[in-house]
């Protein structure tokens, strides 16, 4: 079925724009960038309709990629029901975001470069979900990380964006370390990296056999997932990554890349089933992240920061679902989240665009008059994420919370409380932006934004062009109605649903929590705006703690980053490199021309130090062997 | 033994074809240098290149009549051929990437090319050595020529210092190696690798294993110095920083690859039976090398010095494969050395171009804004750096992948964990270069930067292409490495 065409379209788009983009007119760049993603979306549709109802996986092997000894890895792509969901989300939402980006990036330099990176990202993301073995998944995994890094640093105040990009990359390296180790262990234990063969032999394993090593593999996979999907304690990079252009935040840091961890864990469900301990760890990490990030989101003033912490929190929900054994609920939430979170970010972008680059909620307000379409679409996204029935977030969150209750009731209660907070912060942002009066600077002085530097320097806030608002409307429909696409049912052949009576009480409680959250937000930010501030000052201690994100960045800096840097500076560089040995090339050698001078250098100069070092090392090695320590 | 046995056969000469070609062409260049005029100097570079190409052909011919030759002194097998071709390709890349440098420093002399050929001839001897004496001879031929190359610009103080340090410490380390050879001979009565192995395998005649282990340790010191493994790495940063950039590129790849070739052959063939004795200290050295290389690189500001530490770190990864002492470990080391050669030479080629006359611009910050001013070169350097980090779809990724797989296969779990952690740390300092190139305002150093000469362009594009091909179709090289990794025992 030529699955390879799906990723190849964006790759070609990236190559064309990357190589010729500088000389091409903007319209052609747009056409190539959007067209390639649309083509791959259409090819996904065609493939799915041809393979319908996709009861077993369709696998295509192209060539043997690596063959060495007992290691054989094919370049194989595969579509099954799980992949189908991911493909539709990635190409569908991806295409919408590409269209939106045409409008959003219209005034930016390096236009073609931006789209080239964006298409490259699509390529790697599609390889990630299509790959039929862990190695191909890893190729996509590293590739999307790289593109994310390139795009974060796209046009920023160099210090901050450079730091943010670096942070993203390094935190992800820690995650990748876990993933690669897991991959090696899988290979050593199963003798293959092919999904089909690994999971088949995992299914035939008794829970007792090799449980220890499977648990280790699963925990390492979770380390990888925590890095990519911004879970505790590796979530720190995601909020900073929002420094990138808004379409990037929407595509990479909300809808697709960050859900790769959830996909990977779901894909490896057969392994996780053998490791209840690891499942529990996944659930607890997910829940803790959901709660922790939601509390930070309560008080942020930057609209993109609010949504960023919201993303971290919602990803936590997905892991909670997976950890509780409801993998299909996790993927369901991946899909609905892709709709409403992409919409939230794109809407935020439209708001920022309208306010000439302003991101601070305190300087917005009253935008309902100026940007009605943005307001209505953002309202759709907000009710969806708040879990108001019958909108999309309600269904997926409900599935997750029900599974959490089955797993451990206390997890359900924490989850419900978090759902209340979610509703509160998302509506807080909504009301701050659209209700009340415009609090921005004098319209004529507006024009200098900061951060997402997107100023045009013209008049009052204004609605965005159609190329931006149409994608918003389509996503709004998805956010409202997406819940009726019954993903758990679709995935049932792969991930059987838990039997048991439905507990309606649980549903009522979680809906009530969402509604209460909205009500409090309405009361504090529309009915009595003064109350919010006096509340903040009355609780200034906790408020500061939350506002500064629990000082986690500072703690990491002080306990890990700083000692590491200082350590390598003082011990290894000054100590070994420049201390024991005088490590600079200072031209001492030039004075040593004659043999006598050479000898003098040997006796008193730094070469003596080097030689002493060699002798010491040799003595160490020889003594070790000579004393027979090595058996 | 009849005298006829000592007369080399025609096949023996064929087996030594690459070395013969290199030596002859080298001598011809020296001769032409003396009689030819100033005008003809550039032609000598072409001649050297042709010689290297001929030697590559020679290696293929030699493989056709593979086997041992010259009374078991040399052995021509897949392993030897792999390393012969690798060092020859490294030589070709060095020649094309040094053209601009030699013109710029007004130092275009035939001796540069002749020395390069001699050094490579030495490395070919090492690759095909089947005898400890041949190992020593090859090592010396290769080293002495590189000592001179390191100090190629006679009037440059940095070159001088580099050469002097390299020479003094290098001879020091060779002494250890030679002493080790003497011990081996004293204990086993032979210097032939297969013979030593046979003696060690026979329980009746096996020598005292503690003494044998000590002999192995002495030889290890010599090899560890040549591959810049800790704690014998101290010379590398100074020497690579001080030497001309194209020479640093050569020294950090060619001699290193050849030294690993003999290291593997001697330790796996001859000392294979006593692996439990040498494994622990190679293990320790691998860990120390990775840690020293990566962590010291974190704070470097000079690009050449940074690449020097990075080359130490990469030697550490290869040592992990040596520690595994299995067939897939050997194959992994071979693949890694090839992938590493391309990315390292590529990175140094960019530095060669960027540093300009007198190597004025070698600081990390000088690269600021290169992505804007010279997008093509910056993109190429990015490929090399990503490969050095070990990002998928580059040769560096598969290199690490195979090495750590081999290590796990041999149950070296801790070594794998520490190695992977190290490669995570390493991302930081390579990334810093990318950040500076793309995310900083262009500074003075990127102004008025001249064009990339044709030769350098070939070197950079060729290396980038090879890095990507090894990353996308690793089988091309890995298959051959895998088939050649079964060393004759």
Quick structural summary:
By secondary structure, chain A is mainly α.
- Outline of chain A, from the CA principal axes? globular
* Radius of gyration of chain B, taken over Cα atoms and rounded to an integer in Å: 22 Å
Number of strands of chain B: 2
Helical stretch tally of chain B: 21
Protein structure class of chain A: mainly alpha
Would you report the number of β strands of chain A? 2
**Share of helical residues of chain B:** over 70%
What is the distance, rounded to the nearest whole angstrom, between the alpha carbons of the first and last residues of chain A? 59 Å
Overall number of domains of chain A: 2
**Count of discrete alpha- or pi-helical segments spanning 4 or more residues of chain A:** 26
Biggest interface, chains and residues, is: A-B, 70 and 81 residues
Poorly predicted runs of chain A: 443-458, 578-605
Order of helices and strands of chain A: HHEEHHHHHHHHHHHHHHHHHHHHHHHH
Query: How far is the N terminus from the C terminus of chain B?
Result: 24 Å
Mean of pLDDT of chain A: 80
Give unreliable regions of chain B as ranges: none
Oligomeric grouping of the chains = heterodimer
Overall mean pLDDT of chain B: 88
Tell me the number of structural domains of chain B.
1
């Amino acid at each position: 079925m030529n699955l390879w065409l799906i990723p190849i379209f964006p790759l070609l788009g990236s190559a064309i724009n990357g190589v010729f983009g500088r000389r091409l007119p903007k319209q052609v760049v747009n056409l190539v960038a959007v067209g390639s993603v649309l083509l791959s979306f259409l090819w996904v549709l065609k493939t799915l309709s041809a393979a319908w109802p996709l009861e077993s996986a369709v696998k295509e092997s192209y060539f043997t990629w690596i063959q060495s000894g007992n290691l054989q890895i094919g370049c194989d792509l595969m579509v099954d029901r799980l992949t189908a969901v991911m493909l539709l989300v990635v190409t569908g939402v991806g295409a919408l975001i590409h269209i939106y980006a045409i409008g959003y990036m219209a005034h930016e330099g390096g236009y073609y470069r931006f789209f080239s990176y964006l298409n490259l990202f699509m390529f790697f993301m599609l390889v990630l979900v299509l790959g039929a073995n862990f190695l191909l998944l890893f190729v996509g995994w590293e590739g999307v990380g790289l593109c994310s890094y390139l795009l974060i640093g796209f046009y920023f105040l160099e210090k901050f964006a450079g730091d943010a990009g670096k942070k993203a990359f390094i935190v992800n390296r820690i995650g990748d370390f876990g993933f690669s180790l897991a991959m090696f262990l899988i290979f050593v234990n199963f003798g293959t990296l092919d999904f089909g063969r690994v999971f088949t032999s995992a299914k035939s394993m008794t829970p007792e056999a090799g449980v220890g090593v499977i648990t280790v593999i699963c925990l390492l996979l979770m380390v990888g997932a925590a890095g990519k999907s911004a879970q505790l304690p590796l979530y720190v990079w995601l909020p900073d990554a929002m420094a990138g252009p808004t379409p990037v935040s929407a595509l990479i840091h909300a809808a697709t890349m960050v859900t790769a961890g959830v996909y990977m864990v779901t894909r490896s469900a057969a392994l996780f089933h053998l490791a209840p301990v690891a499942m529990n760890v996944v659930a607890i990490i997910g829940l803790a992240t959901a709660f922790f990030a939601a509390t930070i989101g309560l008080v942020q003033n930057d609209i993109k920061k609010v949504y960023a912490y919201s993303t971290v929190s919602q990803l936590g929900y997905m892991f909670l679902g997976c950890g509780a054994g409801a993998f299909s609920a996790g993927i369901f939430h991946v899909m609905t989240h892709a709709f409403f979170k992409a919409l939230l970010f794109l809407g935020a972008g439209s708001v920022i665009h309208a306010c000439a680059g302003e991101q601070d909620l305190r300087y917005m307000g009253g935008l309902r008059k100026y940007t009605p379409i943005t307001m209505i679409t953002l309202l759709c996204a907000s009710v969806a994420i708040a879990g108001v029935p019958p909108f999309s977030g309600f269904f997926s969150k409900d599935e997750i919370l029900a599974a959490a209750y089955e797993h451990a009731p206390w997890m359900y209660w924490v989850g419900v409380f978090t759902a209340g907070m979610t509703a509160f912060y998302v509506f807080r942002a909504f009301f701050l932006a659209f209700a009340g009066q415009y609090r921005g600077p004098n319209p004529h002085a507006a024009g200098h934004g900061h951060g997402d530097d997107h100023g045009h320097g013209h008049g009052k806030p204004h609605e965005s062009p159609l190329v931006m608002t149409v994608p918003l409307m389509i996503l709004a429909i998805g956010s409202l109605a997406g819940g009726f696409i019954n993903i758990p049912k679709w995935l049932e052949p792969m991930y059987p649903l838990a039997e048991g009576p439905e507990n309606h009480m649980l549903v009522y409680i979680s809906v009530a929590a969402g509604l209460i959250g909205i009500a409090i937000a309405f009361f504090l930010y529309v009915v009595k705006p003064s109350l919010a501030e006096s509340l903040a000052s009355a609780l200034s201690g906790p408020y500061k703690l939350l506002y500064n994100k629990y000082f986690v960045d500072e703690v990491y800096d002080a306990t890990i980053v700083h000692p590491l840097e200082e350590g390598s500076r003082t011990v290894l560089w000054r100590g070994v490199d420049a201390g024991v040995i005088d490590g600079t090339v200072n031209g001492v050698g030039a004075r040593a021309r004659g043999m006598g001078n050479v000898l003098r250098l040997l006796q008193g100069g730094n070469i003596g130090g080097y030689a002493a070092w060699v002798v010491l090392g040799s003595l160490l090695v020889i003594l070790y062997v000579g004393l027979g320590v090595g058996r | 033994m009849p005298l006829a046995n000592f007369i080399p056969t025609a096949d023996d000469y064929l087996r030594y074809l690459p070395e013969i070609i290199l030596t002859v062409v080298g001598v011809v260049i020296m001769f032409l240098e003396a009689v030819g005029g100033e005008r003809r100097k550039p032609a000598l570079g072409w001649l050297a290149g042709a010689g290297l190409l001929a030697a590559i052909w020679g290696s293929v011919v030699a493989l056709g009549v593979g086997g041992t030759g010259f009374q078991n002194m040399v052995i021509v097998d897949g392993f030897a051929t792999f390393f012969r071709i690798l060092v020859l390709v490294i030589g070709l890349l060095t020649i094309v990437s040094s053209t601009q440098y030699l013109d710029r420093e007004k130092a275009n002399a035939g001796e540069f090319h002749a020395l390069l050929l001699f050094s490579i001839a030495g490395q070919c001897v090492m690759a095909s050595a089947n005898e400890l004496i041949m190992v020593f001879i090859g090592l010396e031929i290769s080293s002495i020529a590189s000592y001179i190359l390191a100090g190629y610009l006679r009037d440059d103080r940095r070159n001088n210092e580099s050469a002097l340090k390299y020479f003094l410490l290098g001879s020091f380390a060779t002494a250890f190696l030679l002493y080790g050879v003497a011990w081996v001979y004293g204990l086993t009565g032979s210097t032939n690798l297969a013979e030593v192995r046979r003696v060690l395998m026979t329980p009746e005649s096996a020598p005292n294993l503690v003494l044998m282990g000590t002999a192995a340790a002495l030889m290890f010191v010599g090899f560890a110095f040549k591959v810049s493994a800790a704690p014998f790495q101290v010379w590398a940063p100074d020497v690579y920083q001080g030497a001309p950039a194209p020479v640093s590129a050569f020294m950090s790849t060619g001699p290193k690859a050849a030294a690993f070739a003999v290291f593997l052959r001697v330790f796996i063939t001859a000392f294979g039976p006593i692996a439990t004795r040498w494994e622990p200290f190679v293990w320790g050295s691998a860990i120390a090398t990775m840690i020293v290389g990566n962590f010291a690189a974190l704070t470097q500001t000079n690009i050449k010095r940074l690449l020097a530490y990075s080359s130490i770190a990469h030697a550490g990864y290869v040592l992990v494969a040596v520690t595994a002492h299995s067939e897939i470990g050997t194959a992994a080391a071979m693949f890694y050395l090839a992938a590493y050669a391309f990315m390292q030479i590529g990175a140094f080629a960019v530095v060669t171009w960027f540093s300009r006359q007198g190597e004025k611009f070698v600081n990390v910050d000088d690269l600021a804004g290169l992505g804007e001013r010279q997008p093509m070169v910056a993109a190429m350097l990015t490929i090399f750096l990503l490969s050095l980090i070990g990002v998928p779809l580059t040769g560096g990724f598969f290199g690490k992948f195979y090495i750590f797989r081999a290590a796990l296969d041999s149950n070296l779990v801790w070594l794998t964990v520490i190695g992977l952690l190290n490669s995570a740390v390493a991302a930081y300092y390579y990334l810093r270069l990318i950040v500076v190139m793309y995310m900083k305002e262009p500074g003075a150093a990127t102004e008025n930067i001249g064009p990339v000469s044709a030769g350098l362009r070939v070197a950079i594009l060729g290396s980038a292409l090879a890095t990507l091909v090894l990353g996308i179709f690793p089988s091309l090289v890995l298959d051959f490495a895998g088939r050649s990794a079964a060393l004759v025992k």
